[in-house]
Write a structure and sequence with these properties.
By secondary structure, the protein is mainly beta. It is built from 1 helix and 33 strands. The longest helix has 8 residues.
Length: 464
């Protein structure tokens, strides 16, 4: 990557606090839509589908993504070893790594109603799993997008249908805790039901305030419900409709971008609304600004805050990524940039993990591959912007995680290393010898991304 001084934004400035419309079919002089620098990770065909499922999770050591039948493929970043986590019988709706920087614990919630928490361990050149928790929801509602969020390193919040619940995670458990949850009943042993099943429109997304722990939930009826933490549970604090022009339209996403600021995505994330919340009864609450995308779009949203003040939208219909920048203090939206990608992005997550403090890495599940894109923050904000972006993330001093895991059985998922950066339809292959289908190392992938070829010893097929 070049130096920060060489990075010039080619997007569009927005007036802070003034509602904005971005027509993706009409360009302004000086705007460009450059292709993001890409590094292929592995080839895996996922059918095109417009849904808000979070099917990829990444931390400093592992890349995890959901397979068609509900398994989770795990890739070790440094060694390229891989494993398969089983348990889900249907597609993953959401998965998130624990906030611990020293413990590789992943939570996954599937549309089958199963919530799993597992530790991933690397020992003797193999990836092992240690199950910690399983929650099985009785009669899970169809048509919902399950969500799971870490409240802390030892507690989760989750939603399915209109139900919201919390559950503790014992990271040092030697045997998994197995629970059955009837979310229509507020009394469930081992879990706390915040909102019971069957009383409200579905929760499409929810977010946890990093400051207060408050839950903000985006519902299918166009309302946001805010729950405040009280003792060991949450109580409904306020309800509001973020979009006055479409008060009943289903909300797609929600994210905190400050102690009292929320970005809410409307239907298909076609419109964003920035809200400043007031007191518990919403006194003083204000919609600061809206940003609307017109043209053909279905957007998957990922907010990069606090690594950057960016709301990132991947348009499945256009193979584009839009970066909407927030002014300092969440005073409004002040810039939008557009970038092209090689194939539709179905789900992605954004991390800051390179030596360049102004770079973000987007890990993407696309229709024909899992790929990583590099995004420079200075290309996504007004020229000369300053603020707290690009600061190093704090790490914790938690003790190293404990004991034994069990090795996960392998199963071929038609995953091979990507031979070239191309949107051509891949032909899955099966390794013929141990290690023959081994993924390329990050250095080898970067070499390929810059035009090099795969090393002869890697066993990578050169066919499409």
């Amino acid at each position: 990557a070049g130096s920060a001084a060489a990075v010039v934004p080619k997007g569009r400035a927005l007036e802070i606090g003034v509602d904005a419309v971005y027509d993706i079919e009409n360009r302004v002089d000086g705007e460009e839509q450059p292709q993001l620098e890409v590094s292929p990770i592995t080839m895996y065909v996922t059918e095109y589908a417009e849904r808000q499922f979070c099917q990829i999770a990444v931390n400093s050591r592992y890349i995890c993504y959901g397979l068609r039948a509900g398994q989770i493929r795990v890739l070790h970043k440094d060694t390229s070893e891989r494993a398969l986590l089983r348990g889900h019988t249907q597609m993953i709706g959401d998965m998130q790594f624990s906030p611990s920087s020293k413990d590789d614990i992943i939570a996954s919630f599937g549309i089958d109603g199963n919530l799993f928490v597992k530790r991933i361990k690397f020992a003797q050149d193999a990836i092992e799993e240690q199950p910690l928790l399983q929650v099985t929801v009785v009669n899970p509602p169809a048509g919902s997008a399950p969500r799971v969020r870490w409240l802390s390193k030892t507690r989760l919040a989750a939603s399915i249908g209109d139900a919201i619940f919390t559950v503790d995670v014992d990271a040092k458990a030697r045997e998994p805790v197995v629970l059955t949850a009837d979310l229509a009943d507020a009394s469930n042993g081992g879990i706390t039901v915040v909102a019971p099943l069957g009383q409200k429109p579905h929760v499409n997304d929810f977010a946890v305030s990093p400051v207060s722990g408050t839950l903000a939930c985006a519902h299918a009826d166009g309302t946001v419900r805010v729950y405040a933490p009280v003792d060991d549970t949450y109580v409904l604090e306020s309800t509001f409709e973020p979009f006055s022009e479409d008060p009943d339209g289903a909300l797609a996403s929600i994210a905190w971008v400050g102690a009292d600021s929320l970005v809410v995505g409307g239907a298909n994330n076609g419109t964003l609304a920035l809200w400043k919340l007031g007191a518990g009864d919403m006194e003083g609450a204000d919609c600061v600004q809206t940003f609307k995308i017109t043209g053909e779009c279905y957007n998957f949203s990922c907010v990069a805050y606090p690594h950057a003040r960016l709301v990132l939208l991947a348009n499945l219909k256009k193979q584009s990524v839009y970066a909407v920048h927030l002014a300092e203090g969440a005073a409004g939206f002040d810039y939008v940039s557009e970038f092209s990608v090689t194939m539709p992005v179905l789900s992605f997550t954004a991390l800051k993990e390179s030596d360049d403090p102004m770079a973000l890495q987007l890990y993407c599940m696309q229709t024909q591959a899992i790929q990583q894109y590099a995004l420079h923050i200075d290309r996504c904000r007004p020229h000369g912007s300053a603020g707290d972006e690009g600061e190093a993330e704090e790490t914790d001093s938690e003790e190293e995680a404990s004991e034994d895991g069990s090795e996960s059985a392998e199963e071929e998922d038609e995953t091979v290393a990507v031979p070239a950066i191309t949107p051509a339809t891949p032909t899955p292959t099966t390794p013929t010898a141990p290690g023959g289908g081994k993924l390329l190392t990050p250095g080898e992938l970067m070499s390929m991304a810059s035009g090099g070829s795969a090393p002869a010893s890697s066993g990578v097929s050169s066919g499409a």
